[in-house]
DNA sequence: GTACTTTCGTTGACATGTCACTGAGATTTC
DNA sequence: GAAATCTCAGTGACATGTCAACGAAAGTAC
């Protein structure tokens, strides 16, 4: 086939980057589970909920904010509710809706997890890149992630 | 808590990079499934197998090469075998062992998938970064991925 | 206000990956 | 060469995520 192909440089860069795409989240996720018993998904839900002053967020809005499907968040919220990390309230604005609320337990778990997680992100990622590299990576990440799906 | 925390720059860079970590594999994986009916894991197995002249690889060596657990590869190979993409042979060197072999069907599926996949990787990733950025990304990725687990 | 359409959260079936364990077969040690 | 140890592939239970449905409730058009 006279397919479009990758140059040696592109091939090696893509391979190296793919390794990073797999290894970095795996390592940070493992740290998180070890330190706090939370999955990366748990942490994302808890930390996003905690951003709102009343620790409440409509399911659909939280799903949109995290770029999750509503189905995924519905499943995950059910599991987190069973563990007491969040609870659900009816939405007074919309009888179909559902408000997720970070419980005190959830907040304490998050508060305990956060500093360990920051150490993990630092040691496994931030400490390894220069500020120039970090700035470039940020621009590049935003540019690519902002492309249409 | 007087926890170690992230600066605004670090925080934004980490957020942007996390978006990329999620979005890029998802998009390329969706393209792959749409174009070829293969998952990213399928593609990685097929393409790695195809690198050997005889299209054969011992399960443990293939798992090590791809940095997968043997359990994961065992499960995945069983599914791929059921679809006729690969088959399994006893290892003449080691009666515990298992040789995975890319079938003709698997090879054809890979050959059909590859050019589409290259287009996808190009349009969603390579075309979006300059050669300087790509070189930096490669160095940075290798440096981080090579850290101990 | 009544039908059509859209949105919301949930559900169930399914695919994938992890983990702990197993039995068969190598390898090492003495 | 027998016994202890390690390695290999496979397995089952489980957690997570996707997808296509669904019923209920809003929103829209007429």
Describe the structure.
Two copies of one chain form a homodimer. Chain A is mostly helical and 149 residues long. The first copy, chain A, has a single domain (20-144), classed as Arc Repressor Mutant, subunit A (Orthogonal Bundle), CATH 1.10.10.10. The first copy, chain A, is built from six helices and three strands. Chain A has helices spanning 8-36, 40-51, 59-66, 70-82, 104-124, 131-145, and strands spanning 56-58, 86-90, 98-102. In chain A, strands 1-3-2 form a three-stranded antiparallel β-sheet. In chain A, a hairpin with a 7-residue loop joins strand 2 (86-90) and strand 3 (98-102). The longest helix of chain A has 29 residues, at 8-36. The two termini of chain A are 28 Å apart. The mean pLDDT of chain A is 96. Chain B binds a DNA duplex (30 and 30 nucleotides) through helix 4.
Please summarize what this structure is.
The structure is a homodimer of 149-residue chains. Chain A has 149 residues and is mainly α.
Give the helices and strands, then pairings:
Two copies of one chain form a homodimer.
Chain A: H1 8-36, H2 40-51, E1 56-58, H3 59-66, H4 70-82, E2 86-90, E3 98-102, H5 104-124, H6 131-145
Antiparallel strand pairs in A: 1-3, 2-3
Chain B binds a DNA duplex (30 and 30 nucleotides) through helix 4.
List its traits:
mainly alpha; DNA binding (chains A, B); 149 residues; DNA-binding transcription factor activity (chains A, B); DNA-binding; WH_DNA-bd_sf (chains A, B); Arc Repressor Mutant, subunit A; globular; DNA-binding (chains A, B); homodimer
């Amino acid at each position: 086939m006279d397919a479009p192909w990758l140059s040696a440089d592109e091939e090696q860069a893509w391979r190296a980057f793919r390794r990073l795409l797999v290894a970095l989240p795996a390592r940070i996720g493992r740290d998180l589970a070890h330190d706090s018993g939370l999955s990366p998904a748990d942490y994302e839900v808890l930390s996003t909920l905690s951003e709102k002053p009343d620790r409440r967020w409509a399911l659909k809005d939280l799903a949109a904010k995290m770029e999750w499907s509503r189905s995924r968040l519905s499943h995950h919220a059910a599991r987190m509710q069973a563990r007491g990390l969040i609870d659900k309230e009816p939405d007074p604005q919309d009888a179909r809706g559902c408000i997720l609320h970070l419980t005190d337990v959830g907040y304490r778990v998050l508060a305990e997890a956060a500093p360990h997680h920051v150490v993990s992100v630092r040691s496994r990622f931030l400490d390894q890149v220069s500020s120039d590299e970090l700035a470039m990576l940020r621009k590049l990440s935003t540019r690519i992630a902002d492309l249409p799906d």
